Structure formats: structure tokens, C-alpha cells
Amino acid sequence: MLAAERRDHLLDILRREGKIVAKDVAARLSLSEDSIRRDLRDLAAEGLCQRVYGGAVPVSPAVADYAGRTLIAAEGKRRVAAAAVGLIDPGNTVILDGGTTALAVATLLPPALKCTIVTHSPTVAAALVSHPRVDVFILGGRLFKHSAVASGAAAIEAAQRVAADLFLLGVTGVHPDAGLTTGDPDEAAMKRALAGRAAETYVLGSAEKIGTASPFGVLDFSEVSGVITDADPDADTMRLLRRRVRILPA
Questions:
Q1: Of 87, 70, 134, nearest to 106 (Cα)?
Q2: Which of 36, 40, 15, 18 lies closest to 27 in space, CA to CA?
Q3: What is the pTM of this model?
Q4: Nearest alpha-carbon partner for 21 in 7, 9, 5, 37
Q5: Core-most of 23, 50, 70, 176, by most CB within 10 Å?
Q6: Is 147 helix (H, G, I), strand (E, B) or coil?
Q7: Distance in angstroms (rounded) separating the CA atoms of residues 9 and 1
Q8: Residue 5: Cβ within 10 Å count
Q9: How far is CA 227 from CA 64, 186, 206, 217, 246, in A?
């Protein structure tokens, strides 16, 4: 099989099965695992897959820049955000992550809802300026422009002073094997710090993130209370996820 044919074959497996196990593909094609791993390195370099231990999984489309992400799955993110708003009780203190789904949460908060929102996202904070009953606390630090959030040591230190009822966590990938992931190590560390300050953490997982992965792990499934998603509940990936974590349909 020529290299171009192997490439197409690997991409087809990724689309159909949601992951590639290098040793299994090598056995089926009577090739060495090293050959398959080289192919996967090439595909990853082109942004066509995310390499993981033993193979590869689909790469998340949510690693695009902030402006680009606002155009991806806007309706799905709105449904996820609406379901997340339903988790907020009057009087709650809620940590709201950055990102486009979190921004949708901010815009959907009912005008009558009185609560406190803690966020490291200037865009989320700005969206709440006109809300009549929400108190907003902004965590400062170095601005990570890709996601328009504060990150780094100063932001993590500020997070340690927070105690919240709920954290609405944004990630770029939700995969039954690769777990909850994002595209930057400092951003992943900030998300972990915020999760550690909340009684419960729920993941904002719109459908385009389900079954995909990014390079940096955020939390184990055991560390979150559930994943809110609009993904097809009958999809194979969703059946696998339900074995790992509570799913809240949006």
C-alpha cells in the first residue's frame, strides 16, 4: 500500500471509529507499528489528528482562534449554555470559564437571577455589565489572547481565594479515551485551579468537541459532575462516554 493510500485509509478509520490503535492497524495492513506511527506523526503535523498513547484520535476544531470559534456550532453552544444556566440556583457563586460557550451562558442568564459570577474572561465579564442582579468578580493575570482569558501564576493565585458552588468548565476535547483536554498547558492548569475551588464542576461540551482531543489534559472524568452536550445520544462515542461520566443532554 502506497503512503498516500495509507494516509487515506487512516483518515477513514478515524472518521468511522473515532480512534486509531497503531498496533491493530499495523497488524491488519501487515506493516510495522513504526510505519503507522510515522504516518500518524505526519497527519498530526498537518493538523488532521491528535496523537495519543498507542495511536491517534480526531483533532478538536475548537483550537481555532477566538474569532473563528464564534462561528463554529453556534446553535449547539447555545443549547448547551441554556442547559448549563438551568444548573444555577439563586444565590449561587458560579465560576464561569472563558470561551464561546461560556460567553453564551453569560448572555442567557435570566434578568431576574441573582447570583455571583467569578470569571477570568474579560469578554464574559463585559457581557454581564448590563445584567441587573449579577455580581461579577474578575480574576486577573496575563491575557492568553487565543481564548481571551487570564492565565499564568497571578491568575492561579487569585483563583485560590475563591469558593464557589459551581464551575462551568470549557474544554476543546471530550474523548472517552483521551479524556478532557485543551490546547495550552497554562490554560489547562488554570482550569484545574478553578475546578479545585468549586463544589461541583460541569463540562460545557457542545457536539463538535465530543470524540475529539487536544494536547493537554485538564481533568479526569472522575473529577467532574457531568458533561453537558447536544451530541447525538445514540452515537458510539456517546455510548462509551456514558460509561465514564454522567451526561446531561442539552
A1: 134
A2: 36
A3: 0.86
A4: 37
A5: 50
A6: coil
A7: 10
A8: 10
A9: 22, 22, 9, 16, 6
